Amino acid sequence: MRLNTIRSAALSVFLAPIAAASVIYSDGNFTPGTWGIEITQANAGGTATAVQSAATGNPGAAFRVQTTVYAASGGPSTVWALHRYGTTMATRYEPATQGAIGALTYSLDYRLVQGFGDGHGFTFAIKQGQTTYIGPYTTTGSSGVWRTFLHAGLTAADFSRLDGQPGMPDFSETGQPIRFGFVTSNTTLGISYSITVDYDNFRVVVVPPCPADFNADGGVDGSDVIAFFAAWEAGAAAADVNKDGGIDGADVEAFFDAWEAGSPAADVNGDGGIDGADVEVFFRRWEAGC
Fold first, then answer.
1. Which of 67, 140, 160, 254 has the fewest CB within 10 Å, making it most exposed?
2. pLDDT for 25-45, tens place per residue?
């Protein structure tokens, strides 16, 4: 075991975080031409339109979406509309150049304008290649009061294909470009009807992966250290934390930079500070098996 090498490299840490900055996509104006719409239908299906609605937003302009679903015999009819943000390269996320995605935070305001019952069903969505993926689902309801739908920490596993086929998006650096948006939907079993809803303050935050959360369990603690060294000793590609193509002491330094910056749990010796002394104590305990 290369414990002395590991310890020497770890103790040379300089406590500087290595995470990249988050990328934010947002729109509260909904200028015509900024948003695209793609409609998917089942059975008799329906239609959907989306326009900028001046001065009805929260505040300012809103994005007014009207869906109409048609009654049909032989089963329910459904119309889904993907509202896709952006038509330029600046509104598209490029994993190959901007980096892998660790998680997404979505938020969107909404209020019913015309309709009844549950209003619209809607869900956050991404389009990667020719495939649309949908995330957590809610309904607008019929109160007419502005509300906010927010989900943080969404990973690729939180999305599934709109067409019902198996699969999830690729958030790695080798994944295809991604556009963000949301999907509205309505279903009927017997009557045709229309629903109109205003949406505002669309916002997506693309959060880079956290190198310190090595086992990807959402926390930064000793289990990440164990998982990292298991991969490092085995020469696994995942241990190339600094992405320089090799697996060596520099990766240990990079990992501990992130680990120490990521959690109060790094204060192993309980002295109120996070520094090389904590790493030394950690390795003594690690060697002793406690």
1. 160
2. 999 999 999 999 999 999 999
